[in-house]
Design a protein that fits this description.
The protein has helices spanning about 5-30, 80-110, 115-135; strands at about 35, 40-45, 50-55, 60-70. With about 140 residues, the protein is an alpha+beta fold. Strand 2 (about 40-45) and strand 3 (about 50-55) form a beta hairpin. It comes from Haliaeetus albicilla.
Amino acid sequence: MASSLTCAGVVWAFLSFLCAAASCVGFFMPYWLLGSQLEKSVSFGTFRRCSYPVRDESRQTTVMVEQCGRYASFQAIPSAEWRICTVVTGLGCGLLLLVALTALMGCCVSELISRTVGRVAGGIQFLGGKCSCWEGM
């Protein structure tokens, strides 16, 4: 198996993949915020939620739906800030995953990643990491 990466590059490729995978799993899981409402445990993330209140018009009360799911539409995400967070975090995860998979391919294909491509990929990775961090602001 020919490689265009040094030993440090191989370590970078595998760590990049692990970090990108962890970021993507964190993005897709609805456990960003945990709490309780109407004596039920609730959690939600940028576009998924578990155990959420729904108005029951027949009984004129609010009941808890105890299941996980995503919002019905992009506009159903509770606030503009959460919508922005969803887009920015998704873009960050996409950039991180793109760079990580390219780096892993560099472990198997010779002359795929040059020094310049490695630097550009590191810059993209930095940008992706910053996009993923912006949702916390």
